[in-house]
Amino acid sequence: MKFLIAILTVFLLMGNQTLAQETIPEPEDLKDFPNWIVAQKPVVCGPVKEVMDKVKEFSEEPFSAWVDVEQKTSVMSYINETTGTTTLLEIQGMWACILSQGVGGTLLSLPKKIKGMPIKHLTN
Fold first, then answer.
1. Lowest-confidence region among 21-30, 43-52, 67-76, 114-123
2. 13 φ, ψ to 5°?
3. How far apart are the C-alpha atoms of 68 and 73, rounded to whole Å?
4. What residue spans define the domains of the chain?
5. Within 13 Å of residue 110, how many CA atoms lie on the same side as its CB?
6. How far apart are CA 121 and CA 93, in angstroms?
7. pLDDT tens digits for 98-107?
8. Which of 15, 41, 39, 14 is nearest to 27 (CA)?
């Protein structure tokens, strides 16, 4: 883990932070959400292969993926079910950005819809 932190620190110092900064909305875009704020956080980006090699070192496997509606980037969640380590990546072109890393991850099962059951019971 210490090795990964050192690598991530290097990525932070050398990484391409413009990917994260392109998506910051203007304050007027939030006028319909008066209690919301725009928060900035450091995002570590590096070449896709190098970032994926780090994910593989932790034996994390993908468990969900989607395409970001606004940015048209690939977003993927990885987990190691044994150790509980997790990584959330956003991939754009030749760059992969680590949006979040964590510990204590677990896969949650989605409830199966039972025919005739009101939907409100599935969302509680």
1. 114-123
2. -75, -30
3. 5
4. 2-122
5. 4
6. 41
7. 999 999 998 8
8. 39
